[in-house]
Specification:
The structure is a single chain. This protein is mainly alpha-helical. The chain has one domain (3-63): Arc Repressor Mutant, subunit A (Orthogonal Bundle), CATH 1.10.10. The protein is 58% helix and 8% strand. It contains 4 helices and 2 strands. The protein has helices at 3-10, 21-29, 35-42, 52-63; strands at residues 12-14, 19-20. The chain has a two-stranded antiparallel ribbon with strand order 1-2. Helix 1 (3-10) crosses helix 2 (21-29) and helix 2 (21-29) crosses helix 3.
Length: 64
C-alpha cells in the first residue's frame, strides 16, 4: 500500500458523517463521475455543513 493510500484511509472525506476519503476514491475508481452518484454510494453529504466541504472535495477529485 502506498503512502497516499494509507493517508486516504485516515483522512476525512466527509467530516460531518465521519466517512473517510478512501471511500470516495473507491467510488470514483468504480466509475462514479458525479457528486450525486458518489454521495449515493458512500453516504457523504447532507450533514451539518449541507455538503459544502465534501462537495468541493469531490469536485476537485473528479477534475484529476
Amino acid at each position: 500500500m502506498t503512502e497516499e493510500e494509507l493517508l486516504a484511509r485516515v483522512k476525512p472525506g466527509c467530516i460531518c458523517k465521519g466517512i473517510k476519503l478512501y471511500r470516495i476514491l473507491e467510488a470514483i475508481e468504480a466509475g462514479a463521475d458525479s457528486y450525486e452518484e458518489i454521495a449515493g454510494i458512500t453516504g457523504i453529504g447532507g450533514g451539518s455543513c449541507k455538503s459544502r466541504r465534501c462537495r468541493e472535495k469531490v469536485a476537485n477529485l473528479l477534475k484529476k
